[in-house]
Amino acid sequence: MQLHCILKRFARGLSNAARYPLMFSAGRRWNRAGCLAIAVAVLASACGEDGTSQQSAQESGAGPGSAWDVVEAGGEVRWLPVLATRDLAVGVKRIAFSLDGLQPNEPAPTIRVSLYALDADRERPRSVQYARFIPYDPGVGIVAHGHANSSVSDRALPVGRGVYVAPIQLDAAGLWGMLLEMSSGEAEEEARVRFSVRERPSSPRVGERAPSIDSRTRSQVESLQELTSDPDPEPGLYAISIAEALEQGRPLLLAFATPAFCHSRTCAPVLNTVKTVWREFSDRINGIHIEVFENPDNPQRLVESEAFVAWRLPSEPWVFVIDADGVIRYAFEGAVTEAELRSAVEWVVQDSG
Do the Cβ atoms of 308 and 296 come closer than 8 Å? Predict the structure, then answer.
C-alpha cells in the first residue's frame, strides 16, 4: 500500500478539521501540528478507498498552477485556519472556522472572507464579508471520558481561542473555497480553504418538519444528572419530550449539547445562552435540552442518545428554533451568541402569535 494511502487511513482518526484541504501563503515556517494536518489533508485527497489515485486536478477543474491547488507551502505560517462546520449542503449556512496558533494574549485578527464556487468560477468571489469572532470561555473545561462504542469519536478538538462565523449562500453542490485575508497590527496572512458541499445536509433542514421522538424527561429519572452533563441544569428544559412539545402547537427552542464532554468547548456556553433566552420567553415557547449521550452519569462508557442519533447530527452543539407548526425556522451549528438566538426566537414567537 502506498504511503499516502496509509496516511489517509491514519487521518480518519484525527479531528475532522484535518480532513479539509487547506492552502496557505508562503513566507513563514510551519509548526509541527500544522505540517501534519496539511500533509494528511493533501495526501488523503490523493487516493481512493482502494488505494487508487482519484481524478486528476485537471479533470476536477483545478487547472495547473491554480491558486486553489492543494499545495504544501514552505516557510512560516502564523495562523492555521481549521474549518469547524461539518454539515455543509446547498442553502444558506453559517460557516465557522478557528485559528490554530492564535496565542492567549494575542488580539484576534480581523478576517475578510471571500467565497468562491470553485466548479464555476475560480477568479470572481460570490461574496465578500468580514467574519465575526466569538471567543471561547477560558473557564470551560472537559471531563475525561470514554465511549462504549469504539467507532464513536469526539467530533471536534479545541483549537484556538474562539471561532469565527460568517453567513454564506451555497447555491450548488460541489467544490467551494474561502479566501481568508487575516490581519492584526502589522501582521498579514492569506489562507485558502477548500470544502465540499452536498445537495442535502445530514441534519434536518430549515423549512422541514422537526423529527418527532419520545426523548427522555425528568419524570422518567431519579436525578437530572441522568439526563444532562450540565453542572447547573435548568429543570424546565427536561419537562417534556420532543414529541410532546411538537404536539402542543407552541414554538420550541431545542438544543443538542454535551457540556461536560464537548471537545470544541462550545457546548456549555451555547447551553447557557439557550437557558438565558428560554427563560425570557418561557411563557410563549417550549424549551428542551437533549444531552448528546444517553448516560452522562457514566463518563467511562458513553452511549449516544436516541434523540441525537434520530436527528442525524454530525457534530455538537446544535440549536434549533421551531415554529408552532413544527417547522424548523432556524438552525445553528456550533457557537451562537445570545443576540443571534434571541433575535431568532423573537421572530418565530412573533410569527406564531
Answer: no
Task: Tell me 136's DSSP state.
Answer: -
Domain residue limits, the chain = 3-197, 218-352
**pLDDT tens, residue by residue, 70-128:** 655 445 678 889 888 889 999 999 999 989 888 888 899 999 999 999 999 999 999 99
Q: What is the CATH number of domain 3-197?
A: 2.60.40.10
Do the domains 218-352 and 3-197 match in fold? no
Ramachandran angles phi, psi of 231, nearest 5° = -70, -15
Distance CA 60, CA 335 (A): 33
Q: What is the pLDDT of residues 1-24, one digit of tens each?
A: 444 443 333 333 343 333 334 444
- Residue 286 backbone dihedrals phi, psi, to 5 degrees: -80, 155
Distance CA 211, CA 327 (A): 9
Distances (CA, A) of 261 to 118, 125, 144, 173, 273: 36, 38, 7, 33, 18
pTM above 0.85, yes or no: no
Report residue 237: phi and psi, to 5°. Answer: -85, 5
And the C-alpha cell for 78? 502564523
| Distance from C-alpha of 250 to C-alpha of 248, rounded to nearest angstrom | 6
CATH 3.40.50.300 assigned to domain 218-352? The reply is no
Strand-by-strand arrangement of the 22-24 sheet: 22-24, 187-197, 174-184, 110-117, 127-130
Dihedral of the alpha carbons of 216, 203, 341, 162, in degrees to the nearest 10: 110
Residue of 164, 95, 166 whose CA lies nearest to 128: 166
